[in-house]
Amino acid sequence: MVLHNSPLFFKYAEVQSMCYFLSQLSQLSQLSQLSQLSQLSQLSQLSQLLATISNGLFVQQRKHRIKIVWHSRD
């Protein structure tokens, strides 16, 4: 997944599983542990996703899909 300033379209089930995974991670005592996890090949995309969310994530539901649009602070 490449994150840039254009909309991404996900299926609703994908967003559900992604939000569940992020909610499980948020229960960790220290989120600084994510920096160690980001060194793994598959979880490196997670740090990009979390950075995107921290920059401002707007979720809009359209029919059976969810449109995720983010805006950078630049």
Strand order of the largest sheet: 1-3-2
Tally of distinct domains:
1
Number of strands: 3
Q: Report how far apart the termini are.
A: 21 Å
Give the overall shape, derived from the CA principal axes. Answer: globular
Uncertain segments are none
| Number of helical stretches of at least 4 residues | 3
Report the β-strand fraction as a percent range: 15-25%
Average of per-residue pLDDT values: 62
Order of helices and strands: EHHHEE
Radius of gyration: 13 Å
Structural class by secondary-structure content: alpha+beta
Report the major sheet. Answer: 3 strands, antiparallel
- Helix % is 40-55%
Topology:
Layout: E1 8-11, H1 12-25, H2 33-37, H3 44-54, E2 57-62, E3 65-70
Antiparallel strand pairs: 1-3, 2-3
Would you write up a description of this structure?
The chain has one domain. The radius of gyration is 13 Å and the shape is globular. By secondary structure, it is of the alpha+beta class. Helix content is 41%, strand content 22%. It contains three helices and three strands; from the N terminus they run βαααββ. The model has no long low-confidence stretch (mean pLDDT 62). Strand 2 and strand 3 form a beta hairpin.
